[in-house]
Amino acid sequence: VENAIERLAMARELFGRNAALIRSEKALSEADRRKNEFIATLAHELRNPLAPIASGLQVLRLTTDAVAARAILTVMERQLSQVTRLIDDLLDISRITSGKVLLRPKRVLVDVSMEEAAEAALPLVRAANHTLTVILPQQPLWLEADPARLVQMIGNLLSNSAKYSENGSLITLSARAQDAEVIIEVTDTGLGIPEPMLSQVFDMFTQVNHTLERAQGGLGIGLALVRQLVEMHGGSIVAASAGAGFGSTFSIRLPMAPAPPNTSIGLPEGQ
Ligand code: ADP
């Protein structure tokens, strides 16, 4: 009997190991599939802006029309900045995941970062005929944050709203204080996000199947990057949407910082 029990235990262990092996093989092939898909999309996304740049160069070589040349240069600049942003995001992701990104935190006024991000998003907003409204907080709100990274987080949300909204939509950027936190919110009246995807959009390489999607390009890393940066600042980010077609709201919560000493903001001049 003892022998039989021993054999049974052995068989069980072998079976368990086999099942674990099959499971890890499955996980590996899933990771492999995602990686291959990512490489194909990446190649596509890098290749896409290059075609208009190449044909623009050809036309520039032949044209003597200064107005046409300027229009072509504008298109080329836009395509170039798209490739640059993509590569910067990729570099950022690899630096952040390997812990190589260092924040240079400073005491910053949230208004300043909001205005800077709005300014940077303007070309994209205007190109799609959207209206961007910035609602600044009623009182000065301070954060302890890396100013460039803060602008990057807000800017990323704004450009997503511009990308994932039908032409002529409304985008609102606002900030307010709640308890000891500053809430920075980007709301749009765009394509919206189905409920099951609301938390998944922050995962790397995750994209919602909007019909506009392929025309918009992208790799599904922007929001993963934003979440990492927000968390490095001790904050959190959530998405909300009333569903496909009903717009989206992204809310970043960051710990509020006290006003720096000797600040005269909010005080009458001379104090
Ligand atoms: P990318 O824009 O490069 O695809 P992101 O990580 O920035 O990658 O976004 C992931 C996905 O989340 C997008 O592909 C899109 O499907 C969805 N998404 C992001 N922002 C919005 C938004 N404001 N409205 C609707 N969908 C959005």
Automatic annotation (TrEMBL):
GO terms for molecular function: phosphorelay sensor kinase activity. It catalyses: ATP + protein L-histidine = ADP + protein N-phospho-L-histidine. Residues 41-258 form the Histidine kinase domain. It is an enzyme of class 2 (transferase). It is a multi-pass membrane protein. The keyword Transferase applies. One of its GO terms (cellular component) is plasma membrane. Keywords: Kinase, Membrane, Phosphoprotein, Transferase, Two-component regulatory system. Its main location: membrane. It comes from the Bacteria. Its EC number is 2.7.13.3. It is found in: Cell inner membrane. This is histidine kinase. It comes from Massilia psychrophila.
